[in-house]
Amino acid sequence: MTAKRSLWDVLTRRKSHDGTATDLYGLLVAQARTPAFYAVHGVPDTPEGRLEMIVLHVVLLLRRLAKEGDAGSALSQTISETFVTDMDDCMREMGVSDISVARKVKKAAAALFDRIRDYGGALDKQDHEGLSALIASHVLETTEPTAGARRIAAYVVTSQERLSRATLAEIKLGAISFPNITD
């Protein structure tokens, strides 16, 4: 009976987070599509560049939710699943063959977890230059940090600070804000 209850808890918990996760993920995608990232700061306006910007924003939220114990973990898991589902849908919309979709989605999911480790390490150490180098490499596809990479790194640091001040209830309502990146 305990196994049935825990399975029921898992199923109902996921269902209760689905709408919230979808809404939050939509908010992150909209923020990742801010034109200034591409037009001003040098993010390539390609599927890869857009993916990296989505991943960057998902990483920020997942790191914040990690501080919320079980409630944050459950929501974080559902957001990660929403990301994977979105990647699958996007690949299919782009006409990627069914044979290749699973491999490409697996690669996108691996990129998410790699960025959690990479960006998280730099943020935890408050290594702004290291963060700039990671953004240059992953997002801007350059070998050296540019002014755009440094500006995006500053944006990431400020975003993390803003998210850290938001309560879990505010996050679930989508009442989170990101700094202005237009300049």
What features would you describe in this structure?
The protein has helices at residues 2-32, 35-39, 47-65, 69-93, 98-124, 128-138, 147-165, 168-172. Residues 1-16 have low confidence and may be disordered. It is built from 8 helices and no strands. Helix 5 (98-124) runs antiparallel to helix 6 (128-138). The chain has one domain.
SSE inventory with pairings:
Elements (H helix, E strand, L loop, with lengths): L1 H31 L2 H5 L7 H19 L3 H25 L4 H27 L3 H11 L8 H19 L2 H5 L11
Please describe the structure with a list of short key phrases separated by commas or semicolons.
8 helices; disordered N terminus; globular; 0% strand; 183 residues; mainly alpha
Number of domains: 1
Order of helices and strands: HHHHHHHH
Percent strand equals under 5%
**Shape summary:** globular
Number of helices: 8
* Total number of beta strands: 0
Low-confidence residue ranges: 1-16
What is the averaged pLDDT score? 88
Instruction: Assign the structural class, choosing from mainly alpha, mainly beta, alpha/beta, alpha+beta, or little secondary structure.
Output: mainly alpha
Q: Radius of gyration, Cα only, in angstroms? A: 17 Å
Percent in helix: over 70%
- Report the major sheet: none
- What is the rounded distance between the termini? 58 Å
Summarize the structure.
With 183 residues, the protein is an all-alpha fold. It contains 8 helices and no strands.
